């Protein structure tokens, strides 16, 4: 079905994991001959492949107001925890946009921050088109939170929310749940879960447990995120080629609950005290933003690369590492894990979320016991002493090419789109 028109809707243009995943999918579909467009609520960058609903000064101002109001009120009503929460009070209609009206498939991605609230989601039903929604986090089936941790209130009708300052049976989370229930009753959509963990979460939810869900992972640009010779990549970063390099994406705060920074710090402390570990042979390399005021002290020489905006250079950074460590406590299908494996760098992570869909224990990385810093250290030590590191590196790259490449993921989406169109009333 080569004349298939797909429009992808996301709040931002590549700002965050969902935006990256959305654009990567659209590019993969285009490479397979599909007419695929990305439309965002607010556009920060200059990418000509991405269009926006907010073009005029007035539309931009309105979008900024909605985004900031949504974020401010959510923060004001939440306890001082690091768990994001969306009220979804603000939003805008999209059904009159020509690209949305002309599409055969409307594919939703991350639509929070004042974009598609329950009211405007339900409005999509008027277009009588198949709607696909990829869940990049848990918000679609909770009463407001994006990351659930151990909370199981979404199995019922939310309420008594542990995030809200004013928590009770009929609190804001329960009211949001009811608004979503009403909207979902009006709108039929097919769920795409990028990981088996996300699909299981949907199944347990009271809002969407009976909906059809297909597991299709995100994809990655395998010709950009590709392996470079490790010794050469280390030289580019001005690192001794003989060093054993550990890489991590930095989390803004050592107290950040979601990203698990304290476990990383503890694991490295444990590792540094072990017999057979030469501290001078190991270097820690960290990319991403850093807040010097809240910087943890690491037991190994540490290099901060700052924010890396060019994917080609980021691929060389991954290639320079002997292992990528992510201590994340809940993640759907983190881009960093996929990017690292695609660059033939093994990943050491906790057994959580969608990470086991990518990391195969002691084959292309190491899956540590959840919240066990000692086991995280075991994973690093296992790789450090490993005689055949090249085999693990090859397995890392192969796992991405076979299961997450652009061609494979585009084909799975196209099959889903065609199936949904065939099911439409004639």
Automatic annotation (TrEMBL):
Molecular-function GO terms, alphabetical: glycosyltransferase activity
Domain Glycosyl transferase family: 254-391
Pfam families: Glyco_transf_4 (PF13439), Glycos_transf_1 (PF00534)
Transmembrane helix among keywords: no
Keywords: Transferase
Domain Glycosyltransferase subfamily 4-like N-terminal: 16-223
PANTHER family named among the record's database cross-references: GLYCOSYLTRANSFERASE (PTHR12526), GLYCOSYLTRANSFERASE EPSF-RELATED (PTHR12526:SF637)
Protein name, per record: Glycosyltransferase involved in cell wall bisynthesis
Source organism: Pedobacter rhizosphaerae
Classification of source organism: Bacteria, Pseudomonadati, Bacteroidota, Sphingobacteriia, Sphingobacteriales
């Amino acid at each position: 079905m080569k004349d298939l028109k797909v429009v992808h809707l996301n709040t931002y243009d590549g700002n965050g994991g969902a935006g990256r995943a959305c654009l990567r999918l659209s590019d993969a579909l285009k490479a397979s001959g599909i007419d695929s467009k990305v439309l965002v609520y607010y556009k920060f960058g200059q990418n000509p492949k991405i269009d926006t609903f907010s073009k005029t000064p007035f539309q931009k101002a309105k979008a900024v107001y909605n985004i900031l109001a949504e974020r401010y009120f959510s923060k004001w009503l939440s306890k001082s925890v690091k768990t994001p929460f969306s009220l979804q009070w603000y939003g805008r209609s999209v059904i009159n946009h020509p690209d949305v009206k002309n599409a055969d498939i409307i594919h939703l991605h991350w639509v929070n921050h004042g974009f598609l609230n329950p009211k405007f989601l339900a409005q999509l039903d008027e277009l009588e088109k198949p709607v696909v929604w990829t869940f990049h986090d848990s918000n679609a089936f909770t009463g407001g939170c994006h990351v659930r941790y151990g909370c199981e209130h979404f199995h019922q009708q939310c309420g008594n929310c542990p995030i809200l300052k004013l928590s009770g049976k009929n609190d804001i989370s329960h009211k949001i749940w009811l608004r979503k229930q009403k909207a979902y009753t009006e709108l039929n959509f097919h769920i795409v879960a990028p990981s088996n963990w996300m699909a299981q979460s949907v199944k347990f939810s009271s809002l969407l447990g009976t909906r059809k869900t297909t597991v299709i992972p995100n994809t990655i640009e395998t010709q950009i995120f590709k392996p470079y010779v490790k010794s050469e990549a280390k030289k580019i970063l001005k690192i001794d080629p003989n060093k054993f390099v550990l890489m991590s994406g930095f989390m803004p705060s050592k107290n950040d609950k979601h990203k698990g920074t304290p476990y990383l710090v503890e694991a490295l402390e444990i590792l540094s005290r072990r017999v057979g570990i030469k501290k001078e042979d190991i270097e820690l390399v960290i990319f991403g933003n850093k807040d010097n005021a809240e910087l943890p002290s690491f037991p190994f020489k540490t290099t901060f690369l700052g924010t890396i905006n060019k994917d080609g250079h980021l691929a060389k950074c991954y290639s320079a590492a002997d292992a990528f460590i992510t201590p994340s406590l809940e993640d759907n299908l983190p881009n960093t894990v996929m990017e690292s494996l695609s660059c033939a760098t093994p990943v050491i992570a906790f057994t959580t979320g969608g990470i086991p869909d990518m990391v195969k224990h002691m084959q292309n990385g190491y899956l540590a016991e959840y919240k066990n810093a000692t086991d995280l250290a075991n994973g690093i030590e296992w790789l450090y002493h490993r005689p055949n590191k090249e085999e693990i590196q090859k397995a890392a790259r192969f796992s991405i090419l076979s299961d997450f490449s652009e061609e494979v993921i585009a084909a799975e989406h196209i099959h889903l789109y065609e199936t949904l169109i065939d099911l439409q009333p004639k």
